[in-house]
Write a sequence for this structure.
């Protein structure tokens, strides 16, 4: 099974400053259609998860453009260009190529400094 | 507006059974795979099970294989998760999602004597 490892596990960022979260997989997970089904989710305190990005870098409707995703192979990154108060929460990466065996990272907790 | 609503969570003794339901609306239900994801208190998200759009393919995490059964009724826009032989480690909030696009608020399953 593919194992997803995130770093750091917690992040304290000043409002308006950038933030970056790394996600590494134990193996590449490119589907036969050529896509890498790497998703990023945000879970605000007390809320359900919400997808931010799919297939590495595609933003979901309504997601601010300060969120961006990049990467390939086994290394992926979520970047927030300027952190806002509403960004507080836990961020998860997820491998969605291989079913069964869908795997989430451990989560990265973002707080405001 | 897309809505996903889980129900059926409860307190159950080890070895007991529960049936969760996920009622959906606001999107072409019969065209979407539906997924169950759970989150134990303070833990990461864990993918549990998924069912294809027509219901002919089902997938399970190793941790629940042989104990949980997923099914769907496209005439009622509802997916079910039958959980048998429940264990303490199944205690979690269970979320349903339409292929990770939208998530419900979750339903709490507590397995304890």
């Amino acid at each position: 099974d593919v194992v997803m490892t995130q770093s750091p596990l917690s992040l304290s960022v000043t409002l308006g400053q950038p933030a970056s979260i790394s996600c590494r997989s134990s193996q590449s997970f490119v589907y036969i259609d050529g896509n890498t089904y790497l998703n990023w989710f945000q879970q605000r305190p007390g809320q359900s998860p919400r997808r931010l990005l799919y297939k590495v870098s595609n933003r979901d409707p309504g997601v601010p453009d300060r969120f961006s995703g990049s990467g390939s192979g086994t290394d992926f990154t979520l970047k927030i260009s300027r952190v806002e108060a509403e960004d507080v929460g836990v961020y998860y990466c997820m491998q969605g190529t291989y079913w069964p065996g869908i795997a989430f990272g451990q989560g990265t907790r973002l707080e405001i400094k | 507006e897309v809505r996903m609503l889980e129900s059926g969570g409860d307190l159950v003794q080890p070895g007991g059974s529960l049936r969760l339901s996920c009622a959906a609306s606001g999107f072409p239900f019969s065209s979407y795979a539906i997924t169950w994801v759970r989150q134990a208190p303070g833990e990461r998200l864990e993918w549990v099970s998924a069912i294809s759009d027509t219901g002919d393919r089902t997938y399970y995490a190793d941790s629940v294989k042989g104990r949980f059964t997923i099914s769907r009724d496209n005439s009622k826009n509802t997916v079910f998760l039958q959980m048998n032989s429940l264990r303490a480690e199944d205690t979690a909030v269970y979320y349903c999602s339409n292929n990770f696009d939208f998530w419900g608020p979750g339903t709490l399953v507590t397995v304890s004597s």
About this structure: Chain A is about 0% helix and 50% strand. Chain A touches chain B at residues 39, 41, 43, 48-51, 54, 60, 92, 94, 96, 99-100, 102-107 (CB under 8 Å). The longest strand of chain A covers residues 19-25. The two ends of chain A are 36 Å apart (CA to CA).
